[in-house]
């Protein structure tokens, strides 16, 4: 099992969101080689503009482990996290963050561009983008095209 | 009723957090001159490092109103929001954010300092700091002194 495998799991979540007419972003939290938590965007269903895939997956992981920190875990998410989600990942002290497609409009670099160093992630978090990015981006494009 | 009145309400929440041995930060959401939601830090109780006062108050306000946006509301919080909470407030499109004490270590400017413009808040959000800041700061100092 590798990064592509777990991003496929996150893509499954993103497709669930698409079917529910939610912005199609999905996330999984992985620890010890297995998925311990899943989440997809539910801002419409929950009437909560902060109910992003990453937040739902993180909360589920905290509950599952009974721990408020996730240094041994990795989060896979289909689209670059926004600033709120990057901030949540910071607090979780998660070991790795792997994302698929970049998000120029809403990604964590929104408004300020690249900042040197680990900001806004935790200094001990390893960040990687671009895994299955085209698959992840296609879902988003299809969704927003259907909304026009 | 003015900003000091509503910050006192947020301080009540912060004192509840203190009594529960949580970092003493409290928040209220105000709309139409009354408090519609409250929250205080619950990171220990919930084993969730993202369970900040602002997040809990926002989620409660979304539920109360059945709306995922809060343009007519104001959030009062005893301490400068962190980047995660600032990001959550961005998504909520809240009308005003009023905070008490500054937080050099964990406030939203952590790591990068002041950025021109409304970042990271929504362009339509009015931001104000320094309301009852000493009362808000004293609680934090007492809490962390008791931990040393």
Q: Which descriptors would you attach to this protein?
A:
homodimer, 148 residues, alpha/beta, 5 strands
Beta-strand portion of chain A reads: 15-25%
Count of β-strands of chain A: 5
Give the largest chain-chain interface (CB within 8 Å). A-B, 34 and 34 residues
Strand line-up in the sheet with most strands of chain A: 2-1-3-4-5
In N-to-C order, the SSE pattern of chain A is HEEHEHEEH
Quaternary state of this entry equals homodimer
- Described by the principal axes of the CA atoms, the overall outline of chain A is globular
Describe the structure in your own words:
The structure is a homodimer of 148-residue chains. Chain A is an alpha/beta fold and 148 residues long. Helix content of chain A is 37%, strand content 19%. Chain A has helices at 3-19, 53-65, 83-92, 133-147, and strands at 26-31, 34-40, 74-79, 96-101, 126-128. Chain A has a 5-stranded mixed β-sheet with strand order 2-1-3-4-5. Chain A binds chain B through residues 43-44, 46-50, 55, 58-59, 62-63, 66-69, 82-88, 90-93, 110-112, 115, 117, 119-120, and chain B through 43-44, 46-50, 55, 58-59, 62-63, 66-69, 82-88, 90-93, 110-112, 115, 117, 119-120.
């Amino acid at each position: 099992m590798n990064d592509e495998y777990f991003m496929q799991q996150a893509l499954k979540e993103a497709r669930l969101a698409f079917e529910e007419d939610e912005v199609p972003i999905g996330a999984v939290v992985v620890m010890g080689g297995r998925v311990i938590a899943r989440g997809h965007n539910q801002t419409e269903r929950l009437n909560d503009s902060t109910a992003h895939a990453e937040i739902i997956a993180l909360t589920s992981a905290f509950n599952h482990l009974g721990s408020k920190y996730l240094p041994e875990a990795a989060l896979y998410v289909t689209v670059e996290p926004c600033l709120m989600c990057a901030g949540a990942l910071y607090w979780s002290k998660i070991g790795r963050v792997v994302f698929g497609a970049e998000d120029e409009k809403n990604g964590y670099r929104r408004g300020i561009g690249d900042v040197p160093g680990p900001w806004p992630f935790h200094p001990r978090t390893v960040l990687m983008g671009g895994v299955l990015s085209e698959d992840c981006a296609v879902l988003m494009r299809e969704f927003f095209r259907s909304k026009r």
